[in-house]
Predict the structure.
Amino acid sequence: MRKNNLILYNLSESEGILKVNVDNLLKEIAGTDMEPDVIEVSRLGRKSDESKSRPTLVQLVGQTSKNLILANCYKLKNYKVYYKVIINHDLSKKDREINKKMLEDKKKEIGLREDNVGWTFRLKGKPGDFHVLAFKKQNL
């Protein structure tokens, strides 16, 4: 059920109607109108008085739409309105815990050989088949 879903983080809550904001964001990423592919858009969690924005769940028609969006999400950094938005797979709590443990194990492994300070860690792959990549930070 979650395989066609995306989670959007840091999408501002104060900017008008949620569905319109998500449609505009997806249109910017994909380059085409994604409105027919979106089934439902909803906020997750309770609304708080703080300025924190809640995650947004986007349910899509199929995996092709989801893959198109995830493949082009690097384009977000070019837009002033959406550069802070993070797009991710919709994972269960158990999957998120497994991924967190994998990251911690990789950090410990690198930490035994040398200092972790100069390293960046990323999860790559598809849900259920993630692997951890470690990159040495480059000083530019």
